[in-house]
Design a protein that fits this description.
Order of helices and strands: EEEHEEEHEEEEEEEEEEEEE
Oligomer: single chain
Distance between the termini: 61 Å
Number of helices: 2
Number of strands: 19
Strand content: 35-45%
Length: about 290
């Protein structure tokens, strides 16, 4: 959930009713600290229990269901991951491709806030910056390192199946995601651009028909502060909207001894706005 240089991470989601606080005292914040860490997770549920009898009955039913599952061969109900790696909705287990997929909740728990963090959840994926700051991605060691800004990468990045032809365009692709799909190996032009290393398809979160909101806050070394959040819901009849923002700031971490110059300072802001219009009936009921 937190990066190694993060000290504190906190997040909440209104729709799911979750609040998570994680503290890492092993991070170097300028003083000597013991290499111990602890985490606190609190789950706040909006549901209420009618009485002790109802709770006991639900626990008994759950225990009976678990017993039947064990007796039937030890099978467990696993959450299915739905992907669109072949431009149609399929279960991840049914796709005959080498693919790694992660849902938006999994990305939040693993602390995936930018394309570089995909290394935490995708085996064989590496990310680095060139000397000019151009993002360079590799999958299974296959990539194309070049310091030019307008160079087509060997690993193509997509947002909702729309290719981003240049690496500089991918820096804000991981904002407010529903899921991410990473296809390994050479890819054709199914999504519009071929690639020799693989493809990374970011699926942005869609507007919801009911109100939902969430956010997260992280603090780390060199006064790094990352804060983000989203709000989603209906704005008119048949019209839903979603707004997501993220701000990342950090002080400089290297100072020159020969001139008045520093590097490492960061100040970035990202936003994504989506509007979804559904079918509406403009007919009026006739009153007799």
């Amino acid at each position: 959930m937190i990066r190694r240089d993060r000290a504190v991470f906190a997040g909440f989601t209104h729709g799911a009713g979750d609040f998570i606080l994680q503290v890492d005292s092993s991070a170097d914040l300028g003083g000597a600290m013991k290499s111990t860490w602890f985490s606190i997770a609190v789950l706040l549920t909006a549901s209420t229990v009618a009485g002790g009898d109802a709770l006991a009955q639900s626990d008994a039913a759950a225990g009976e269901a678990n017993t039947q599952s064990t007796a039937g061969g030890g099978s467990q109900d696993l959450a299915e991951v739905i992907v669109t790696a072949e431009k149609r909705t399929e279960r991840l287990a049914d796709v005959p491709l080498s693919i790694t997929a992660a849902t938006g909740d999994q990305l939040i728990k693993q602390g995936v806030n930018d394309p570089a963090d995909l290394e935490k959840v995708v085996p064989g994926f590496t990310y680095r910056l060139s000397q000019n700051g151009t993002p360079v991605s590799h999958i299974r060691g296959v990539g194309f390192y070049d310091e030019q800004v307008a160079v087509a990468p060997a690993v193509t990045i997509y947002i909702d199946q729309v290719p981003l032809p240049y690496g500089r365009m991918t820096e804000g692709a991981s904002l407010d995601l529903e899921r991410v799909e990473v296809l390994k190996g050479p890819q054709g032009t199914l999504f519009g651009q071929n690639s020799t290393g693989g493809a990374v398809n970011y699926i942005a979160a869609k507007p919801t028909s009911s109100f939902a909101a969430g956010g997260d806050l992280a603090y780390g070394r060199f006064n790094e502060v990352d804060v983000g959040g989203f709000v989603s819901g209906p704005v008119a009849t048949g019209l839903n909207a979603r707004l997501a923002v993220r701000s990342e700031t950090r002080d400089d971490w290297q100072v020159s001894n020969t001139r008045n110059d520093t590097i490492g300072k960061r100040n970035t802001n990202r936003t994504r706005r989506r509007v979804k219009r559904g079918p509406t009936c403009l007919c009026r009921e006739r009153h007799r």
